[in-house]
Amino acid sequence: MNAQDSAxxxxxxxxxxxxxxxxGVITLNRPDRLNSFxxxxxxxxxxxxxxxxxxxxxxxxxxxxxxxxxxxxxxLAERKPAEDGSRRDLSxxxxxxxxxxxxxxxxxxxxxxCVMNGVAAGAGASLVLACDVVFAAASARFVQAFxxxxxxPDAGGTWFLPRLVGSARxxxxxLFGEALSAAEAQAAGLIWRVVPDDxxxxxxxxxxxxxxxxxxxxxxxxxxxxxxxxxxxxAQQFDLECQLQRExxxxxxxxxGMRAFAxxxxxxxxxx
Length: 272
Ligand code: T3D
Hints:
The strands form two sheets. Strands 1-2-3-5-7-10 form a six-stranded mixed beta sheet, with helices on both faces. By secondary structure, the chain is α/β, with parallel strands linked by helices. It has two domains: 15-213, 2-enoyl-CoA Hydratase, Chain A, domain 1 (Alpha-Beta Complex); 216-262, Orthogonal Bundle (Lyase 2-enoyl-coa Hydratase, Chain  A, domain 2). Helix 2 (39-54) runs parallel beside helix 3 (91-107) and helix 9 packs antiparallel against helix 10 (234-248). The chain has eleven helices and ten strands. It binds ligand T3D.
């Protein structure tokens, strides 16, 4: 194991994981299966998350996919019907793998940015929606594939979808499972920005540089406040804003931001 492997929590076979400039980049890496989730991939994602959570000074995380797909959800080869017709308890994998993955990403105190290179289906679509910001290639598409195999959206899908697009659109997407283009996803409020396919790699580099140089504590507070808002009254949210802004007012980055403004220069944030 080399030094970089060690920082990144060892070596990986179904994801690629790098951690440099205090930004983690996770690339789902089973391109011939459209990066669908296996138990091995979940275990590797859990290990990458261990490394991210342990990394002091972490400033952001980016998730993307190798090849033409982002993630086609659960690997259906792991769900081949048994010869004897016996059934399986699908909640087991949700509890063991999907629940911790989604919750850990949401709880990271840094922005988690999805750079969506291709199709996202089933739990792969839920993974996209669990990210804080999504940049999608113009050719990427979303498929709520669950109804096609007799299931409901899971991995948090029924929680994210109506909050992002409203219940009418969420219901249509979930029931009919039609593909949504990146442009349609943006118009519906599912994602932040669509970029030309040939600009996606540069977008990833830009996002990485932005996160590495960003006001990390302000990002963390923004993430916490926006996540809390859907369960809060306006008064509770105001209280939270006061508490978080009080804390940010004492940070080095706020002082630097004020100095940079007065000196008419770009701020050099340190994330502290
Ligand atoms: O534990 C539990 O089971 C509960 C949790 C469930 C969570 C879930 O995610 S359930 C939903 C699972 N996902 C799906 O149902 C999506 C299945 N895939 C598709 O509908 C389509 O492949 C896509 C819409 C994603 C993409 O279509 P397209 O035409 O661009 O590609 P393709 O030709 O269908 O797929 C390319 C290859 O990837 C193909 O293999 P081949 O023919 O080249 O050998 C295909 O079989 C494979 N592939 C695609 N999705 C999966 C997959 N292999 C395994 N698992 C997949 N999910």
